[in-house]
Structure prediction request, 704 residues.
Amino acid sequence: MKFLASLLFLATSTVALGGDVAQESQPNILVILADDLGYSDLGCYGGEIRTPNIDALARRGVRFTQLYNSARCCPSRASLMTGLYPSQAGIGDFTTARPSPNRGPGYLGRLTERCVTLAEVLKPAGYGCYYVGKWHMHEETGPIRRGFDEFYGYTRDHSHDQYDADYYIRLPEGRGKEIAPPASEFYATDVFNQYAVEFIRQGQARDKPWFLFLGHSSPHFPIQAPAERADKYEATYLRGWDVLRDERFERMKQIGLIDGQHWKRTPRSLVPMDRDDIANGFPGQPNPAWDSLDEDRQRDLARRMAVYAAMVETLDQGVGHIVQHLQAAGDLDNTLILFLSDNGACYEWGPFGFDGESRRGTTTLHTGDDIRRIGGPGTYPSYGSAWANLGNTPFRLYKHFTHEGGISTPFIAHWPQGIGTPDRWIRQPAHVMDLMPTLIQAARARYPVAFGGHTIPPLEGTSLLPAMRGDRLPERDLGFDHQGARAYRQGDWKLVWSKRMPHEIQWELYNLAEDRCETNDLAEEHPDRVQAMASEWEQWARRVHVIYDGPAVGDTGMKAQAATSPVIAQRTITVTGTVARQSANGVIVAQGGREQGYAIHLRDDKLALDVRVDGQVTRIISEDSVPAAFRFQAELNEQHMLLRVDGRELARGPSPGLIPVQPKDAQSIGRDDLTAAGDYEPPNPLQGQVTDLRVETTTPGSTN
Prediction:
């Protein structure tokens, strides 16, 4: 009880963020977050999409070349909103309606109570707080509950039909919709832009500083825009992604973003390993050359990208309306405007995209008059991995990955009264979690030591105002993790771990000062640096709740997980190892998760092999208990599953088939660190040790 009392006493305690702000009055604050916008899609970052209003903010402000995100929508939002790493804020991978308490505090699937939002920090400093658009940090911890005064948008799911007027809500409960166009004229991106101006008016009427978070769902799939807006882009994209990638790269040189010596336009990125239908027949292969496609496919794909471009242009037009309103009201110069994207461009799922809800959708080839229906009401298209590769020019890979194409975001700051109008590139590394301390310093707010009876972790981010004013930021390391992909940035060095690739996964090492586009892997030349940085990634991961505390698993524990994840897609698998156990239950080794994978584990003293194919688990399990120490062998081939202990066969059963695609979740030893590969609740740790583990795979029909 004494401890609880001390927490309650601290509920109003705060800490100041160092550094005074030059202006006399607190600025208004506008954060604009685009969804799945690629690094080079904006005109001011080299893109061909028309974004004159955002470009104008860039010319009167600063642009960052190395702002990092957290690889996906909701983890990036959680980090941006709290100033912490996403796993510290409770959304280490994704939101979920059924969080597992066994996965630890980093994977609640919603914002934890042990963090504070931008609104919860700025409101005590006198700000009116408004939110428009996509929330995606779980509806049970929605914007009104987490400090915002007014909200219009949606709190459920990652995306929705832009034309479905009834889906978008006004909060708090009982508020009438100030803006309600007829259903036939409703388009969510337009209405979000209109509500941004409406809420700014409401904030101005209160004669207090205001904070508006405009969280667009554009240009996330389903890519949708009125047909007439997409028409003008169709001829541009009929020229194809190869030509346009070259042109973007040259424009990026011309505008001073990149140089030709340390930045290289990478080859077409690989399509991640997935089911053949999802990957459009290209799993593990490079995106195809544009000229290799027939005319019908080219026209279909050009229209998809034209719709995407129309979404981005519509977003930009909204920025123009907001700026015009602020200028007319005399508030533009003392409004801190920040514009960024939540992750790299989205590859889902193959070079031809999909039609229909996410992974359940199939790809439709639209021809003739049907092409112009792409992006209309009731459609659910994506634009695919090859156009996403264009969006991330010149980087490798995409959203979901921790290579530069997944975690690099455009970032613009405009605030004439606070940073001047420098029209300057800022080339220092930064992170979306830096927005919280930046806004705290600008607003002269305070970050709490405790809030609502909970101790709050110290800020992980750092204020970017010094960099915006031409000074250096403090040196620091940055960690990344998303569903098996991970990275660690230390000075100019970056250690990165991929996933869902056709080759064996291991740590890659790059010097970003010399090789920003990650084209020259230096891991073999610097093994000591790889080992040291991998160890520091592990320490960081444990500290921020990426990896759960648990029993020792010997030398094959975290280091083994970080050392290799075997390629198991479409291969027979034989796993051998030695176990010394003190528990009746627990995972010996697992690779994969809720979609694909396998797990060898103890269940009530018996040894089990679970194989998951397309979400369904097939299990064989020994009839007898296994000893406290034993040597095991597990096999999966096209005919059967098999388990042996100390050379004796204990279980055999029919095979569900080979694992069809490379799983997202990496190999875990002594526990299942992400989603469950078997039929149990993760992490299901083993009390004991696993040693001498060996995973052998062969391709059916090979002679190896």
Summary: The first strand starts at residue 14 and ends at 16.
